[in-house]
Specification:
By secondary structure, this protein is of the alpha/beta class. It is 35% helix and 18% strand. The protein binds N-carbamoyl-L-aspartate and zinc ion (ZN) (2 copies). One of its GO terms (molecular function) is dihydroorotase activity.
Length: 353
Amino acid sequence: MLITDSAITLIQPDDWHLHLRDEEALQAVVAHSARQFRRAIVMPNLRPPVATVQEAEAYRERILSALERAGSDAASFTPLMTLYLTANTTSQEIALAAASDFVHAVKLYPAGATTNSDAGVTNLLDQCDQALAAMEKHGLPLLVHGEVTDPAVDLFDREAMFIDTVMIPLRQRYPALKVVFEHITTKDGVDYVMQAEGPIAATITAHHLLYNRNAIFTGGIRPHYYCLPVLKRETHRQALLAAATSESDRFFLGTDSAPHAKGLKEHSCGCAGCYTALHALELYATAFEQAGRLDRLEAFASLNGPAFYGLPVNTETVTLERKAFEIPFALPYGATELVPLAAGETLDWSFAG
Ligand SMILES: NC(=O)N[C@@H](CC(=O)O)C(=O)O
Ligand SMILES: [Zn+2]
Ligand SMILES: [Zn+2]
């Protein structure tokens, strides 16, 4: 990694948690991720979900075709596919996934926890024993949206509650299962991942490193800062920043870039998700610089993820220049528009390729 007053050059990063959607939405966003990242773990929460290896293969083809249509070099971006865990996921399907060279993980959505999670699992340990045992056996990681869905539990406590009621019993029953605690948002999540035994890691988004929950309510309600798990208080943001910039190799980059049409965000019941694929590395660099730890960006963005997934580190490098980047107010999104996170604001870093 090379850091000067005017630029940072690092091994090309990967995005270990990304929503690419499908059809015209996919077409609108895929080139943004391919511009900055070499690979991305692609979330399977389509409608209907990507639940089988065959469906993942077809989705992968659609992603590669969209890239070509967007004029990107399809060989320069590798979508790493995931399966959506359901009560019907069989151990045979897990074996097929593990044997394939393009499915890299299985995603747990607790039913009702987030966007397109209604096909998800209502009771993980009761419903998914065969699949989890097979994943543990084959070394296929489980990616977890770690929030309980009990409406009686306060929205801001759902991640902490998940650790005690699901994560700990899950990892007791399957101690060799590789688990990624996705988009962690709390000090509780950080503390758990830091001290837990066995194969566990966590992704952290740029928005959870940059903002606390006040961002959702600054001078009025700001739907483009609403995502799940929801932004938390400042003490939690500080814990996330400390973890991301720490010596621990258990934390890595996952944007959770989650596009929703402008009209569905600015709505009486607005969708959860922040769009960051356009300017992901600029946002992460801003957060790491604020912490005075730009020197830790490469490990977080480019080294820790491949190590956990057992994949090679990328060979290309990318450069960020210290040059103002004005975030557009809106981007084309099929027949509608997409509002990127922090639209209209200016960042100190620009991606230079
Ligand atoms: N993060 C979000 O707020 N939304 C994601 C789903 C998810 O990752 O939970 C989406 O698909 O829109
Ligand atoms: Zn999620
Ligand atoms: Zn997500």
